[in-house]
Hints:
The protein is built from 19 helices and no strands. It is mainly alpha-helical.
Amino acid sequence: MDIRHKANRIRLASFSTPQMRAFHLSWFAFHICFFGWFGIAPLMAVVRDDLGLTKTQIGNTIIASVAITIVVRLVIGLLCDRIGPRRAYTWLLCLGSLPVMLIGLADSFETFLLARLAIGAIGASFVITQYHSSIMFAPNVVGTANATTAGWGNLGGGTTQILMPLVFSGVLMLGVSETLGWRLAMVVPGIVLFLTGIAYYRLTQDAPDGNFDELRARGELPEASREHGAFQSFAAAAKDIRVWALFLVYAACFGVELTINNIAAIYFFDTFSLSLATAGLIAGLFGLMNLFARTLGGIFSDLFARKSGLKGRVRWLFLAMLCEGVALIGFAQMQVLAMAIGIMLVFSLFVQMAEGATFGVVPFINKQALGAVAGIVGAGGNAGAVAAGFLFRSESLTYQEGLFYLGIAVVLISVAALAVRFTPAVEAEEEAAYRQAADADDDKAGAAPIAAR
């Protein structure tokens, strides 16, 4: 789709333009989704004792929490093309808050599994976040915008690991038992999810010039008809081998991050005999790297594009993926807590930069099917998490062995990034668009007072 008046600069302190409102609300909404999605993960040691779960059963719940997201991400991409990101996000947040609050009713492995399966749907929020920022920002900053909104959203994976044990402790201070405490603690993220959905509907719009229904009424956007329908867009995206290459790549970066979010707390709790709060704090450091790491991936993608165009974006993606795999192999070998934390931070840096680099490429694959492309690639992350989940449900493999094999897989999959290629015509067109947006930004910067820059 051709969207006009995209922002060619990111003004973090601004909330006055529709572009920056979408920027801030989309990353915040995705951030809050992590509280619902992975809020139970740092409490799993308590849940395990309460419900009598085995390692295999815990592994199955981990798989369930990310498996359903594969399907929902595919659907949500189509929904964004049809009704716009504003309404899609509102419905997802409000409906997704219900199973988060109701997981406390689980009294067996089966009911807990079903609850985690239902909660996994809110993981599709990532696709809407990337879709919304992609249509709000120009080519010279879209990589940075996508990486930052996603990164600050993913930061929720870290803050959740730190805050949910504190919420749990606060509930226990009311005099309730641990059995009731973890159930009441999950009501908190559910309420916040619902309120965020209402705020998203009231404070954002689909595109710089208005909502999709308004743009279609003015003839500025094609109707969501059979000719230009969402399913036709999906078919076009699904036929493109580059989309599936990025599907694999994202499986090996975001899929790995989801897996670590699920197992990190219980891994440090069991391996190094730590308290629940300490294990959660250390596990949270992995996610907290999203504060800047994924943004760096997008910034480097835009910088590589300045020097080498779309080829530069692809080369940077391959390099980030390769370094991620090597760092993960190193993390799997650590036996000393301090060294394990150090190499985990290096690994976290590269896995999140690889994610930012992936969605520095996605907006240029097929602009007429942006939602479908984002949905398929985004689903790859959850497919990767499902595949990795089978490594960590096995009673015959230790967590460290599972991490080592996962690192080997990442190194091998990094080569898939090099399958993403563009025609000379597309490269020339995107280079011209990049230069035009960059020049327009330079002109505005030169004309603006120093205090406004």
